[in-house]
Design brief:
Order of helices and strands: EHEHEHHEHEHHEHEHHHH
Mean pLDDT: 93
Distance between the termini: 33 Å
Protein name: AB hydrolase-1 domain-containing protein
Strand order of the largest sheet: 1-3-2-4-5-6-7
Low-confidence stretches: none
InterPro entries: AB_hydrolase_fold (IPR029058)
Strand content: 5-15%
Radius of gyration: 18 Å
Number of helices: 12
Helix content: 25-40%
Largest sheet: 7 strands, parallel
């Protein structure tokens, strides 16, 4: 059972407790959270048939299997356990954003229960509004139950993220904030739609540095060169506009897998020393010359 499906407002699957108890001591537990416009209640946008599936429909756009990319489904008994969390993320953006905030409590309860039964912190990866869910879970999770968190193009505001990081669970977690100037239009639209442009999105990182937070801009050439030197060659060709390159760009999931499953191999102090840590100005990709930013991925 390398991947376990858990949906909001549903009980834990039978047998999960035993599975967690039988995990090898070094095996990771990784909680995956999808973003906007997915719903377990509708077959055509069910995340468990799409990105959270071991075998998604290859005819569907952006159908890359997160659990396989994270190293699950190999048959290796040491691969650990992936938990695919599904929630209702359809509807108008404002309502979905509010619902994502409320999903923090059930995700926190899930992470706390799993960490207690597995005897280790749960790692978390979330895209878009799934990143908001992950951050909101920090407000309610048992301290120490959530370890390394990878946020992919998080649909959240900087101040809200900082408040989550300042919670008891947040202070004991580590966050890799994966950003991209390819996501600028989506960040800008969120700022206008949800708060009339009064606050900035998380694509710029936190307002104030935090020791357990690191921004990684994955369309910055210096950052990609540094990842290559660390043993993670990543596709270099940037796009002008895309909300999905944090998980579709070839090579990135190798980095995420190591960061989540073996955080000691990519410690934050080491990454901070090796990666540039800079964030380029907004619109720098959209306005770049053609050789630097090609195409749009819808």
């Amino acid at each position: 059972m390398p991947v376990v499906k858990v949906d909001a407002d549903h009980a834990l699957p039978p047998g999960l407790t035993g599975t967690l108890a039988d995990l090898p001591g070094h095996a990771p537990v990784i909680l995956m959270i999808h973003g906007y416009r997915y719903s377990p209640a509708a077959a055509h946008c069910d995340p468990h048939r799409h990105i959270l599936s071991l075998d998604p429909d290859c005819r569907v756009r952006r159908a890359l299997s997160w659990p396989r990319a994270l190293g699950f489904g190999t048959g290796n008994g040491d691969e650990g356990l992936a938990i695919a969390f599904g929630w209702e993320a359809r509807g108008m953006l404002g309502r979905a954003y509010g619902r994502a905030g409320r999903m923090g409590r059930p995700v926190a309860a899930l992470a706390s229960a799993v960490a207690q039964r597995a005897g280790r912190p749960v790692a978390v990866i979330g895209h878009s509004l799934g990143a908001r869910v992950a951050l909101q879970a920090l407000h309610h999770a048992d301290p120490g139950s959530i370890g390394r968190v990878v946020l992919l193009a998080g649909a959240e505001f900087r101040d809200t993220a900082a408040a989550a990081l300042d919670s008891p669970a947040g202070r004991r977690a580590e966050v890799l904030n994966i950003t991209s100037r390819e996501n600028d239009l989506f960040d800008f639209a969120m700022e206008l739609w949800l708060d009339r442009g009064r606050r900035q999105a998380l694509g710029f990182g936190l307002d104030r540095p935090a020791g357990n937070w690191l921004d990684v801009q994955i369309d910055d050439q210096a950052t990609l060169a540094a990842l290559d030197r660390l043993g993670f060659p990543v596709e270099r060709r940037p796009l002008r506009l895309s909300h999905w390159t944090p998980y579709l760009r070839r090579g990135l999931f190798d980095f995420y897998r190591t960061a989540l499953a073996q955080p000691w191999a990519l410690s934050l102090p080491m990454l901070r020393a090796r990666l540039p840590g800079r964030i380029e100005p907004r619109w720098s990709r959209l306005l770049a010359p053609p050789a630097q930013g090609r195409g749009v991925r819808a």
